[in-house]
Amino acid sequence: MQINPFCSDIVKKPREIEVPVPGLNDSQLSEIVDEFEVLLNDDEKRLDHSVFVVSSQAGYGKSHLLGRLFGELNTRATLLYVLPFQDPDSCWKSILLRAVQELKFPDRVLDSKAERSGPSQLETIAHGIVVDLTIQAIQNSPKDANPERIVTALQCQSVEGLRASGQYVKMKRHIPRMASILRSLNIQLNSSIDSWMNVLFILAYEPESSLFQGCEDWLKGGSIDLDEAKRIGIRRNDLIRYDASALEVNDNCRKRLEDLCGLMRPVRPFVFCFDETERYLSRPLGETFALVIQMLTKDFSNHMTVVTANLEPWEKIAVNWQAAQSACLGPPVQLEGINKEQGEKMIDNRLSFWGFGPDELDKMLSGGWLDDLFFETPKQGIRHFLKSCFKRWNDVHGDVSYSDLKSYYETTVERIKSEKRRQVFDRDALRWLVEEAAIGLDGLKVAPYKGQKPYLAVRWEKDGEVRYFGFEDGNHWKRWGAIAQEAERHFNGAEGAQSVFPRTRELCEIPSGNWKISGKLNQAKKSFLHILELDYDTICRAYAARDVFCEAVSGDISYSADETLSFIQKELSDVWELLTGKSTGEPRVSPPTPPGEPPVELIETIKSIVNTEKFMAFSDLFSTIQDAWPEESIVRAGIDAIEEIKQYHAPNMTVLKWL
User: Fold this and answer.
1) How far apart are CA 12 and CA 268, in angstroms?
2) Of 177, 205, 232, 586, which is most buried by a Cβ count within 10 Å?
3) How many CA atoms lie within 13 A of 509 on its CB side?
4) What confidence tier does 655 reach under pLDDT thresholds 50, 70, 90?
């Protein structure tokens, strides 16, 4: 297996970064951590500004710095990495959805074993809120015998321990006293404490409950069935109508996130990290982003917000900010470039990681190459430096990897295939695919759509045929009934339009078998309503396309946004046919089955092979076991279940490393 150790020069996941080089942006990291300490020491748990991290150009390590911040605040904060929203009218819905998905990451950062086996951030914060309020309720109640003993026992309990013992059930009797406790702490909620606590109990301790999905849907600001809400214990006033407008849904999501921050105040803060802000260049997005940061800073408690930006695009974004909104950003934390000594250490770190010895370092540095590189520019951007190292390695060893756009895109597809948490419903990525990536396709007219009802968002027209697209991840039967009615109205109108709703594999099948309107929905699906269940390969390719496009917009890769979009449109030709129903008649009706738990035999087989090889390409592993295990997604799920295997992505390959 040949690999260039310097092929990766963009941080994709702040929870998994390489070993930092001593001295490189250390003071900047300390400055941000100091802001966090100020937040912790404030009685109201408020900062009067957001942390603003700026680099002179792309490639100075903003995302890497966020990864280091995640490591520094490990278990001291709930960490949320927030990528750009696509639609201003649903900004809070996108942010909340992203937050809930981030909460499913492990509570411990940069710990490969805990990454797969430890409790999630969601479980940890739900447990933390429940235990903290229960303890305060016990301490304020004269009826509890031996309160000190009970409190001490609760303080020592983990989420797994309470779940296994079932003792959490007894804690529910303290819910009625929790409202007064919150009032005494000056914590005001938009939804009742009864609803919140009943949801949090299930999220923390009953992951196998039939009500768990309903709790998660409510947490994401969605509508749920009234009967299900009663079984959970959610009050009717805390439910949003199934036919609520897009603005009502968006505002409900904002309130849900604000409540969550407030509830966490006695436990620990949130840290919101807004990265890739170059996507907010348009006026509507820029103005909405400004409003989001202003509301987070002024209205939300118990959080630190970090905004990253490259200087040149930010100057264009800032034009759309009002003076009061710009004042919500703190003094810029300016990132520095890498110097020669730090560069040599980074080279050594990369070579050591990939198992190369000192002789390879000598080859890289021979002939005064590093001195020449830094002669005219004593400090330079980290990505620029790594690209120079990439070229130097190929000069020394011959070209062992490729860096064209197709290769880079395929590498990104491979990365997403190895990240199970990325293969879930992403409203912004799907809307980008339909609304932005499709612009310019032959004969296709694309436009945003705002109709009488909030269910349809984008309109396509080609050769007299019209299709509307909506983006729904919920499973409320009344909402889907209303969607079907709206789709039928468009079908029976002058346009004779079809309506398409792309969904991903982890979502519930629509309709559910026990719905009253199942027959009506199934008839609609045969005619004008297409609930398009995207398969594993399509999801990964579509999401990779957006990632690569965003990197082009941000200046992270050496291709313009226009040429990247042109490439993507050709690369996804079969996806366009799928979305227009022209690939195999009409979009599929039944969803593909998501990979379940990988078989023990498969896991043991993978362990044996990778442990023996230590380093190997995924393609080599897959070809070795493909006869017995032909489904790629199942094999990847098997790899994901093995704590001792870490995955890394190079051009044209995913590399498996035994830890």
Assistant:
1) 26
2) 205
3) 14
4) confident
